[in-house]
Amino acid sequence: MASKHAGGVEEHLEFYVRTFNSGDADAVNRLYTENAVAIWAPGEPLTGRERRASLAEFLTRKPVLTATLRESHVTKDTALLTVDWAMEAVGEDGTKERAEGIGADVLVRDASGAWRYAVNAPYGDPRNAKK
Length: 131
Known about the structure:
The chain is an alpha+beta fold. Helices cover 24% and strands 45% of the residues.
């Protein structure tokens, strides 16, 4: 179920982090619009089935995400978030990996009042990416 906080993008972010850390790819994917774009690797946008499959595969590595809302700008049904985040996961070779960055995300409110990601760009400015 998507976050249905009337104005609360901060609560939505907390809900997203909990859902992401649960490892349930279907639940996380429900927090995105049908046509959402995700730029999880700088310069490599993913949409549709490719985005959903990439997320499901990544979640098998049991990543742990933390995120703090740095700034938000909300209009009636659109929000721009700037987010400080960090993530630890097991790498493909079995070693622990850590990534962090400053994200820029665009959310839209759907007809039910739930916030959903239209653009998810954890490396909002790729120069801010730290591995």
